[in-house]
Design brief:
The chain has 286 residues and is of the alpha/beta class. It contains 10 helices and 8 strands. It has an 8-stranded mixed beta sheet with strand order 1-2-4-3-5-6-7-8, with helices on both faces. Pfam families: Abhydrolase_6.
């Protein structure tokens, strides 16, 4: 499968790089926190026979420029909007924080036709908590990336349940070892956790910014599929249920037996072929 790269310029002059593969109607795949465009390359490969897939690196990652002062949800939407305008793509898939971005882009960019929103971490009645963000930022400022990653993993409830019973110092030591191994084995296109760690706080701020703003999506004109993992953190199911109440015409589907990592590459516990089938059915229906 041939993968090419390109770039667009966002409203504030920042370069947004992307990967492109496939043929057919354009589909933009928006990755989530602690990910880059490479994280969903296998999902794009599964969809490539039917869609031209565009995988942008969100800011601070890989092919794209850095976050700037005042970065917010509007900035993220402008980045995706620039890609949509350049490519003519009309469909979106977004996971996690990328799901929040896809949702807002579908609301505000009139050319968007359909969007699949997977496990958006929208804040509903104070859940999920973001109280851990201050500690995460302090640990990053002190250069303790392993500790910051453990704080983020626990705060977002993304680690295995067994982590709740493992002493924190041991978790930090194991994380530092895993980062060292990843740094050693990383390929030229990979964006390792050490580089991704500083981007997490920006995604958490998207959750905070969107808090209590669900009513705004009532004006949605694009067709929406709300997708949730059967074993994803409970707060994501709460968010999808809340969106379904606000968007009664939206479709809803559950990936039985799969969790938040389902759309990612197989090496990250993903099942991209199963997710691709759900996306394909929604985007190709009459």
């Amino acid at each position: 499968m041939t993968v090419t790269t390109g770039s667009v310029t966002s409203a504030d002059g920042t370069t947004i790089g992307y990967r492109r593969l496939g043929r057919g109607p354009g589909l933009v795949l928006i990755h989530g926190a602690m990910e880059s465009s490479i994280s969903h390359i296998e999902l794009a490969e599964a969809l490539a026979p039917d869609f031209t897939c565009y995988l942008p690196d969100r800011r601070g990652r890989g092919l794209s420029g850095p976050h700037r002062e005042g970065h917010c949800l509007r900035t993220e939407v402008e980045d995706i909007g620039a890609l949509l305008a350049e490519t003519g793509a009309r469909d979106l898939f977004g996971v996690s924080a990328g799901g929040i971005i896809a949702l807002r882009t579908a609301l505000t960019v009139p050319t968007v036709r359909r969007a699949v929103i997977f496990d958006p971490p929208l804040s509903v009645n104070g859940s999920p908590s973001t109280a851990w963000l201050g500690r995460h930022e302090r640990e990053l400022a002190e250069g303790d990336v392993a500790a910051a990653l453990v704080t983020g993993m626990k705060g977002t409830q993304m680690g295995p349940r067994v982590f709740d019973y493992v002493p924190r110092r041991l978790l930090e030591a194991l994380t530092a070892m895993a980062m060292a191994r990843e740094d050693k084995n990383a390929g030229p296109d990979d964006v390792p956790f050490r580089a991704l760690a500083p981007t997490l706080r920006h995604d958490v701020r998207l959750v905070i910014e969107q808090s209590g703003d669900l009513e705004a999506v009532k004006a949605m004109r694009a067709e929406i599929l709300l997708l949730v993992g059967g074993t994803s953190p409970a707060y994501m199911r709460v968010a999808v249920d809340a969106l379904a109440r606000v968007l009664p015409d939206a479709e809803r589907a559950e990936l039985a037996g799969l969790g938040h990592s389902a759309s990612g590459n197989a090496a990250q516990r993903g099942r991209p072929e199963r997710v691709a089938e759900v996306i394909r059915r929604f985007l190709t229906r009459p």
